[in-house]
Amino acid sequence: MTKSMMIVGVGGQGSLLASRLVGAVLGECGYEVKLSEVHGMSQRGGSVVTYVKYGDEVHSPLVDFGEADYIISFELLEAARYLPYLKPGGKIVTSTQVIYPMPVITGAMDYPQELVNKLQARADVTAVDALALAEQAGSPKAANVVLMGVLSAATDISEEVWQKALEKTVPPKFLALNKTAFALGRAAGKG
Q1: Pairwise CA distance, residues 92 & 154, whole Å
Q2: Dihedrals φ, ψ of 67, to 5°?
Q3: What is the pLDDT of residues 75-93, one digit of tens each?
Q4: What value does the mean pLDDT take over residues 144-168?
Q5: What CATH number is given to the structural domain containing 173?
Q6: C-alpha–C-alpha distance, residues 114 and 6, integer Å
Q7: Per-residue pLDDT tens for 9-62?
Q8: To the nearest whole number, what is the mean pLDDT of the chain?
Q9: For 126-132, what is the mean pLDDT?
Q10: Taking a C-beta distance cutoff of 8 angstroms, is the pair 88, 51 a contact?
Q11: Are 130 and 146 in contact (CB under 8 A)?
């Protein structure tokens, strides 16, 4: 059986490291893993999506509407944007961080209100202030690893496997900080 997840956010939020970490975790568990990244103006704060499929045999990394078991979102509006991809019974792990897209900045539209409540009305959602937890760990750049900690609490994959993957994917000089960020996220995910 094949499962899938989408890692979504805005350019510069660390989705590449997050996808490498997830890939390492799933590979360690013996799954075949396929990743595909889609960058939409990521250099200018545009939407960034990574598709991850895993299982005994994976033919394509792409995820279609209603197929994602998990959506991991680094920004709240991105979670709402990709909600149609979530399968019934799927799970959303999202940061509550808000980054205004250009139409909001220019005044062409308003940023939607009460997004967490709207998402929770449609799906199983764990929403955390990943940015605040990352800052508590020592760097706002670690928000991606905070969310990986939250995700780890939602899976049945052991913490030991996640820790090994962290050691493989994070440069040694940032490992201690990222382990702290991961632990804070895992604790928040267990709520």
Answers
A1: 10
A2: -110, -20
A3: 999 999 999 999 999 999 9
A4: 96
A5: 3.40.920.10
A6: 22
A7: 887 777 888 999 999 999 999 999 999 877 655 455 678 899 999 999 999 889
A8: 92
A9: 97
A10: no
A11: yes
- Using the structure block, give the residue that is written with the tokens 């909001």: 104
Phi, psi of 144 (to 5 degrees): -65, -40
Range of the domain at 11: 3-190
Cβ 36 vs Cβ 62: under 8 Å: yes
Q: Characterize the bridge pairing of strands 124-128 and 86-95.
A: parallel
Q: Which residues of 1-30 are buried (b: 16+ CB within 10 A; e: fewer)?
A: ebbbbbbbbbbebbbbbbbbbbbbbbebee
DSSP string, 33-77: EEEEEEESSGGGT-EEEEEEEEESS-S-----TT-EEEEEESSHH
Would you tell me the crossing angle of helices 143-154 and 15-28 to the nearest 10 degrees?
30
Q: Give how many domains the chain has, as a whole number.
A: 1
Among 20, 13, 4, CA closest to 165: 20
Q: Compute how many other C-beta atoms are within 10 angstroms of the C-beta atom of residue 134.
A: 27
